[in-house]
Design goal:
About 20% of the residues lie in helices and about 30% in strands. It has about 260 residues and is an alpha/beta fold. It folds into two domains: about 150 residues, Immunoglobulin-like, CATH 2.60.40; about 80 residues, no CATH class. A hairpin with an 8-residue loop joins strand 7 and strand 8. Helix 2 runs antiparallel to helix 3. The longest helix is centred in the middle third of the chain and has 22 residues. The radius of gyration is 25 Å and the shape is elongated.
């Protein structure tokens, strides 16, 4: 049976944009730590791909890798997919309610009206456009890490969009050890797209590969706030071994588990 291996790519987007590099700003994890993966939680992850052969010496099936990118310090990806839209609608409803109160208020001084309008602008936030062709960010309100609308984009921290993997290439791909591709799925984190790859386990060795990552930076361009894409690259490695697949309970070859009489204390 094909084994599914998950690789988490966690990016410190704020620092990566400030330094214009992913070096020192990525943290990679996989689910193969107990099978030999090295440097978990660093930018130098070496993912172990074991089981090139069955215990009888026959060739085992290929392995499948799945990459999941996340942004450090942003709204957690576990919230519902429509979270941003629902928070934006709530901010709009609150602003409309305050505008209704202001419109029905008896004529007041200019200072009071200006203060009320400033509060409404704060609730609505400034509209943001996007220069990206790979992501629909235009019209979305910018939120902070608590889910509140950011009124002034020049002050305080805001939640960054999830990083996007736009390409996987390098030695492992050139040597035809890994066959990556982007797939469509009703995924709640990656807007319906994710990267996956099959690995040829008959080629033991350590192979490097690179990922092209697209981040988004909030800048002011021609008086308008814009999510501008920034493309950076990072590297990781695969370590393919020729160890046979073994039963994790008996340490023997793959097969049925031994049964023993049940005992009760």
């Amino acid at each position: 049976m094909t084994q599914q291996l998950a690789i988490i790519l966690l990016v410190d987007v704020g620092n990566a944009l400030a330094s214009r590099t992913l070096e020192g700003n990525t943290y990679l994890f996989d689910n193969m730590k107990l099978h030999g993966s090295e440097n978990q939680g660093t930018g130098d992850l070496v993912t172990a791909v074991n089981g090139a052969y069955w215990s009888d010496g026959s060739q085992a099936g290929e392995q499948v890798l799945n990459w999941l990118p996340y942004s450090l310090g942003s709204i957690p990806p576990t919230v519902p997919r429509g979270y941003h839209a629902s928070r934006a609608r709530e901010a709009d409803r609150q602003a409309l309610a305050e505008m209704t109160v202001l419109a029905n208020r008896p004529t007041a001084g200019g200072e009071d009206s200006e203060a009320a309008l400033a509060l409404i602008r704060k609730n609505i936030g400034a509209p943001v456009k996007t220069m990206s062709r790979t992501r629909a960010l235009s019209g979305q309100q910018v939120l902070d890490v608590t889910g509140e609308v950011v009124a002034d984009h020049t002050q305080g921290a805001h939640s960054y969009p999830t990083p996007i993997i736009t390409d996987i290439f390098g030695e492992a791909v050139d040597e035809k050890v890994m066959y990556p591709a982007e797939y469509g799925s009703p995924d709640l984190v990656t807007d319906g797209w994710y990267w996956s790859a099959t690995v040829d386990t008959s080629r033991p060795g350590t192979y490097a590969y690179k990922m092209r990552i697209q981040l988004h930076e909030l800048i002011q361009r021609a008086g308008e706030w814009t999510w501008e894409p920034v493309n950076l690259t990072c590297e990781s490695k695969l370590c393919i071994t020729s160890e046979p697949k073994r039963n994790g309970f008996t340490k023997a070859g793959m097969g049925y588990l031994p049964l023993s009489p049940a005992t009760c204390a």
